[in-house]
Fold this protein.
Amino acid sequence: MWVLFAAGSAFFAGVTAILAKCGIQKTDSTVATAIRTIVVLVFAWAMVFMAGSQKQLRSMDGATLLFLILSGLATGASWLCYFQALQLGDVNQVVPIDKSSTVLTILLAFLLLGEPIGPFQGIGVLLIGSGTFLMVEKKPQAKAAPPQGKQWMFYAFGSAIFASLTAILGKVGIQGVESNLGTAIRTGIVLVMAWLMVLVTGKVRAVCQVPRRELGFICLSGLATGASWLCYFQALQDGPASVVVPIDKLSILVTIAFSYWVFHEKLTTRSGLGLFLMVAGTLAMLL
């Protein structure tokens, strides 16, 4: 059953990137992150009360709560980096780097959780690394478009690093708590962190200036994120992180398909080969 939850996480995560990109055309990425986190939080706590897992709050130990808080902080940092990267770069450039967090997650799962790395996992790491390198290429710029810098790349790599920490800390944190409740607690931490960033960067006024159309996409991306998280942490609770994470990263196929349909972003021969290697490496890890 955890495999189905992991697949559901991949689908909703893929849709999230497209909806978020539609919602940050004019809206600041930090503001968008703060708004969509409200939607995710409401969604997460609704699932907690539907499952009746709020009763576990009283029996939760300090270690579990600590790791959930740390996981939430890592998630918040990953989100802020990810949506800033999406705002600055193309979806087809940002997403592959973000998905390369699989490699670091597997290494951390081996070092910290004792999950073994077999020959297929080793091959998968090499393929994903090679595929990511091929997909990160300079895109031709239109004459009227401003030159694209490299800032998006630094944010994308930051997103990948924090995403891998999220998976490991989340895996430890949900050992002693129901996954829906763990997700809701983590989301609360992300919400506080996101709105603190809005206050610190002086972007409070921008919250009231978000276009209605983009606000709708931001809220939809929040719902998709909530669905992806619930599936993801349910899968992590029942399955090994070294397998759940690679399945989740197949969301790149969903994202690239929708990016072609919505934004008309096309893959070059090089980036197409990179995508093939990344998918092949992900599938190798499941053997």
Observations:
- Confidence is low (pLDDT under 50) at residues 142-147.
- The CA atoms of residues 56 and 177 lie 7 Å apart.
